[in-house]
Write a structure and sequence with these properties.
alpha/beta, Rossmann fold, six-stranded mixed beta sheet, five-stranded parallel beta sheet, globular, transport
């Protein structure tokens, strides 16, 4: 990407100083002029680290850097193409850092990809992009990182008291939409997926109350997704409930529970959706502990490709990606539930 023009740097500094002055004066509601004819605000967003004021760009072109998990894809769904995206799922340059279902929304825009290297943040690279706003919504609650990013541009952090990365798809959509001044568009997206879930629940009442384990194997360890993680939430929306054995496990990271070799039986729910992280699916299909579970032996477990639509869509956890995952997984879920002895 080209180096930001010096004029934009001057404009950004001026806007930032104006926003600081407005905040100190305790004025300015979104879309209103501040006291004394100051810079109008695009949005004010409540986050875990306090309220973030986002000034309207003078030239009308909002430069967005999307750092949080799928923040960029949510912005795209709202009609805003980020100038840079942190490529959490390693979708790569060919997909412009988002799921292939969303790439075309960029049109001719070529975002700069912020490489996922152990989740680290390259502050100098972000500063050089001269952003108007940084989205770090589905992310860790790291105050030091937030403070450093806020020195560069207004930074939208997760909502208050949200566990790390556990921002559900509705909240995620609403926060990003608010930050971009596109609240109405966000509500339309949410209503559309809500309607889809409602239709599927009507079509599959047999899903209601069926226990579910959604989990993965990574090396010699295992993990189970919890409510707040879209890899479970899409099944919860269909009427499935978390397997009680998983619910009882400690969850230090908020959105998943670690499962030891001795606890693998926690996956033995009425139905399971299992995959791998960083390993081929054969690591699961050839795992004697997994293969010994009744849910697997009875054909009620879906062992899904980590690079397929079910997992990539559920993991991205956006309105569009969840729709892709539902298309792929619902028929197989219905077949698995049909094998229950009820």
């Amino acid at each position: 990407m080209s180096t930001p023009h010096p004029a934009r740097r001057t404009r950004t500094l001026a806007v930032g100083l104006a926003a600081l002055a407005l905040a100190s004066a305790g004025c300015a509601a979104p879309q209103q002029e501040g006291g004394g004819g100051g810079t109008p605000l695009l949005a004010s967003v409540d986050t875990h680290f306090g309220t973030v004021d986002i000034p309207e760009p003078d030239d009308g072109e909002l430069r967005v850097v999307a750092l949080g998990w799928s923040d960029g894809e949510v912005a795209l769904s709202l009609g805003v193409a980020p100038v840079a995206i942190f490529d959490w799922q390693n979708f790569g340059e060919e997909n412009k850092g988002v799921g292939p279902w969303a790439t075309e929304r960029f049109g001719d825009v070529e975002p700069e990809l912020l490489e996922n290297v152990d989740g680290s943040v390259n502050y100098e690279q972000i500063q050089a992009l001269d952003p108007d706003v940084i989205l770090n919504v589905r992310a860790a609650l790291d105050e030091k990182t937030h403070e450093r990013l806020s020195e560069i541009a207004p930074t939208v952090a997760p909502p208050k008291d949200t566990p790390d990365f556990a921002v559900d798809w509705r909240t995620h959509t609403r926060v990003v939409a608010e930050a971009l001044g596109r609240t109405a568009e966000g509500e339309e997206l949410i209503a559309g997926l809500d309607s889809r879930f409602g239709e599927l629940r009507e079509q599959h009442p047999e899903f209601d109350g069926v226990t579910m384990a959604s989990g993965s194997k990574f090396g010699d360890a295992y993990g189970a997704s919890l409510p707040g993680d879209s890899r479970f939430d899409i099944y919860g929306e269909l009427g499935f409930v978390l397997n009680p054995a998983i619910e009882e496990l400690p969850s230090p990271n908020g959105f998943y529970a670690n499962i030891s070799v001795e606890q693998v039986s926690a996956f033995d729910a009425d139905v399971a959706v299992l995959t791998t992280i960083g390993y081929p699916l054969s690591a699961l299909t050839e795992d004697p502990l997994i293969q010994s579970l009744p849910v697997v032996r009875d054909g009620r477990a879906l062992l899904v490709d980590p690079e397929g639509d079910v997992m990539r869509g559920a993991t991205a956890g956006t309105v569009q990606s969840i729709g892709i995952a539902l298309d792929a997984v619902v028929p197989d879920l219905a077949a698995a539930v049909d094998k229950l002895d009820r």
